[in-house]
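Q: Can someone sanity-check these two? First one:
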Amino acid sequence: MENKIFGMMEKMYMEMQKGFEKVNRDIARLEHDHGEKLAALFDEQKAMREILDDHSVRLSEVNKTLDDHSVQLSEVNKTLNDHSVQLSEVNETLDDHTGRLSRIESKLETHDIKIHVLDKTKANAE
């Protein structure tokens, strides 16, 4: 009976060893599969990090350019405002000169009439 029990125990031990070996193989396979997947994920993460770093550099350059353009636009707007003031002053001067010329032309017409009358009077007197 002891031999029978010992035989059963030995058989159970062998089956357990086979089960452990299968579990160990499964664990090794899982570790290998997960290792490859993790390596692929880390490679992808590294590639994404490089792309992100490149985009960060580009974004910094674009922001610097935008800041430069903002400064230039402010300067252009200031110049435009200065020119608008100067143009307004020129228009006021033009209006003033136009008024003066109109008055001069009016006086010239009056003087031309007077000269014409004087010339006729002088011609009649002779």
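And here is the second, same format, sequence then tokens:
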Amino acid sequence: MTSRDPIKATQLPAVAVVVTYRRPQLATQVVKGLIEREGFAPENIILVVNGEGGLADVALQERLDVVKLPDNLGPAGGFNAGIRRFVEGFDQEWVYLCEDDVGLFNLPTPRVQQVLDRLERTQLSSSEKWPAAVVAYGRDLNRRTGITTVHDPAGSSGFVPVDVAPWGASLVSRAVFESGATPDDDWFFGYEDFDFWLKVHEAGFPVLLDVEAARSATETAFGSGRDAAFQGVRPDDETEPWRAYYVARNFLELARRHGHIGWTAWHLAKSVRRWQLGSRQARKATVAGLKDGFLRRMGRNDAYVRTVGEISS
């Protein structure tokens, strides 16, 4: 993260949820940043341990509100568990959703209180519900093809609407969850974040991109910059061919829920291209994913799961 001076813990109107799986060092860095840079009190940080892992700093972990899941439920199940704990056990208005590797993406800190302060001065159209959801980096969705592209923050300021986003470091209001828009455990991994944000839109809430964060993270959140940020720290996407299974499978469900047959046609064309360019393992995963996608098989497939979370130094 882009770090400024540490700040003292304050009464932020937010609770942080950090979901982690097999990344104790990275998760520890994220939690320390939330405390030292953002001002979260440890008891207002929900750490969701997705079956295996936790923090490298055991003493720090004991100060947090820990949700230990019995098995790996993926980011979909992990964030859903953290959100349930937030809704049932806390009275703050906002939750800050963090993946355990978000510390690699050069986001400005502190930002939570600043984002909330700026939101108070933001005027939305009368057709939009308020409060909103704010993402750190977003994507625009082509409604004809279902293809998404990174939203370019150039020339913008403040907050701008986007269609979908990675989980990243996102602020979401309690009202969103109370409307029934929550992550779906059945997705496990892959497009589960897009499904959630599209449900947020369907519930009438805007999804806003924090332009300042997007500019800061431009070089590290996507593409080659993302791979460079991961270098020597965690596996990149190319070295995790198991991902191809969920990309192939889950987009078919995304098209059913939020799109149309045109999305499916474009997805099949892209899948053929991925198959042509992929490794032997990725090709196998793509074919298996398409098959299970058409059969509407969801959830975790134990043949395609992460084995290495982070690279030991």
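A (reply): Looked at the second one. Residues 276 and 283 are 8 Å apart (CA to CA). Residues 1-9 have pLDDT under 50 and may be disordered.
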